[in-house]
Amino acid sequence: MALKIPYSRVDWINTIFLLAISLLALVAAPIHLFRHGLDWFIGGLFAFYVIATGMSITLGYHRLFSHLSFKAKWPVRLFTLVFGACAFENSALNWASDHRRHHKHTDHDDDPYNIQQGFLWAHIGWILFKVLPEPPLDNVADLRRDRLVMLQHRTDKLIAVGVGLILPAALGYWWNGTEGALAGFLIVGALRVFVVQQCTFFINSLCHTIGRQPYSSTCSARDSTLMAFLTFGEGYHNFHHRFQHDYRNGVKAWAFDPTKWATWCLAKVGLVSGLRRVPEHQILLAEMDEARKHVGRQLADIHQSGTSVCDNALQAVHALEETLALAYHELGEAIDRKAEISRRTLARWRRQTRELVERVSALAPTPT
Length: 368
Ligand SMILES: [Zn+2]
Ligand SMILES: [Zn+2]
Fold this sequence. Notes:
Elements: H1 12-36, H2 40-66, E1 71-72, H3 74-85, H4 92-104, H5 119-128, H6 141-144, H7 147-204, H8 225-230, H9 237-242, H10 258-268, E2 272-273, H11 280-305, H12 311-336, H13 343-363
Antiparallel strand pairs: 1-2
Helix pairs in contact: 1-7, 2-3, 2-4, 2-7, 3-7, 11-12, 11-13, 12-13
The chain binds zinc ion (ZN) (2 copies).
């Protein structure tokens, strides 16, 4: 069947821009690299721009402006607004508005990058087509009070072209004449925009497709360490959708989340404050709740499929399930009464939660 494209809704500016960036990044930049190689100056500038623009999206556009996970002084807001614009992902105001709708309507029609409309739609399709009528910016009234945000909203394209493309070319020219200018434009400009954009797009597509759901299975968001490496720590998307205001996405101490570490460091030097953290008890309660639901689903599947499982293993699952049901009840009550529970007890319950999921997955014919 022929693919029907609704041409009247195509956003031609976005489409042509993304096509041009892809061609420059995937064809022109590699040819340039093959012919002239990469010197330390252009390589260093590329690394700086990737980190500065990528983190301005994750730390600035996402955790600061969209979720208000912490408060930031003007130098941090200014830096993330300038370099965030250089990712060519729209103004912070528009980005936050889309993103807040994504969280409010995840997996439903009003979710701008709804994964239920297909992987490609969530990854890039939603940028290539206009939503008509255009949704109002009625969910970012708080950001409208920030003068820097509003200034960037009016000038983001200018900043993007000036700081994101022309400045690297100018620095390249200063370093190595015309050849340097071309390297600055192609590698630090186009290739870097392509890399950072794809990393952001992965969050909307792959982070709703691959990985585990330890905190909630009520929406498609998933946790994946691999994705965390590709997205400056945003790969722990299941936790993020369950606790969207927490400044951490990788909540475990060992989780790869450079955005969390950068925010923590900025707090230490007084540039950001009021870091929001969900209490440990609350997180464990969500994990226990999800583990119990997971076990219920797996046991129902086994029962339905008539798969035979070892009696002893099944009994062990049921025994652990009962222990955890009591712990879940005790933890819920402690949270309601604001009572303390020792770290040792919390650690034991966390271990048992993990063990229950492992044991039932070992039973199940198709572990999820
Ligand atoms: Zn999401
Ligand atoms: Zn978010």
